[in-house]
């Protein structure tokens, strides 16, 4: 009957459990990626952006913090599982100023992922020909060491790694 025809004509589907496990493809290194810490958004008007997330969307929004060594003002928007970082230029040499010249209305600037050992990550990434935008980690907005990976080596995304 119909059931017999369905059983004999149905394609065989391999399940993940019968194929090689994903973990075999992950290099055994001295460091590990952790959770997504934040997504950073460059904004031309910091007050308007703060108001959108706080007053319109009802999010918890931090005070503005100046980070002169990075050339930015930052504001963090708390979400249930991560944060958004609003970035606004501080000074004429701010990397956010040049980003906003190309993207007048703002936009996603970078993602930040935590790592358990930033020095080991730097060593291994250099061996794998991933360019790091500074020789040494800098102290980031959370008071922890951070590095940035070149977007051309990360499929067009500026990736920040932060010591967990």
From TrEMBL:
<dbReference type="GO" id="GO:0046491">
    <property type="term" value="P:L-methylmalonyl-CoA metabolic process"/>
</dbReference>
<comment type="similarity">
    <text>Belongs to the methylmalonyl-CoA epimerase family.</text>
</comment>
<dbReference type="GO" id="GO:0005739">
    <property type="term" value="C:mitochondrion"/>
</dbReference>
<protein>
    <recommendedName>
        <fullName>Methylmalonyl-CoA epimerase, mitochondrial</fullName>
        <ecNumber>5.1.99.1</ecNumber>
    </recommendedName>
</protein>
<dbReference type="InterPro" id="IPR037523">
    <property type="entry name" value="VOC_core"/>
</dbReference>
<dbReference type="InterPro" id="IPR029068">
    <property type="entry name" value="Glyas_Bleomycin-R_OHBP_Dase"/>
</dbReference>
<keyword id="KW-0413">Isomerase</keyword>
<comment type="function">
    <text>Methylmalonyl-CoA epimerase involved in propionyl-CoA metabolism.</text>
</comment>
<dbReference type="GO" id="GO:0046872">
    <property type="term" value="F:metal ion binding"/>
</dbReference>
<dbReference type="InterPro" id="IPR051785">
    <property type="entry name" value="MMCE/EMCE_epimerase"/>
</dbReference>
<keyword id="KW-0479">Metal-binding</keyword>
<dbReference type="InterPro" id="IPR017515">
    <property type="entry name" value="MeMalonyl-CoA_epimerase"/>
</dbReference>
<keyword id="KW-0170">Cobalt</keyword>
<dbReference type="GO" id="GO:0004493">
    <property type="term" value="F:methylmalonyl-CoA epimerase activity"/>
</dbReference>
<feature type="domain" description="VOC">
    <location>
        <begin position="35"/>
        <end position="164"/>
    </location>
</feature>
<dbReference type="Pfam" id="PF13669">
    <property type="entry name" value="Glyoxalase_4"/>
</dbReference>
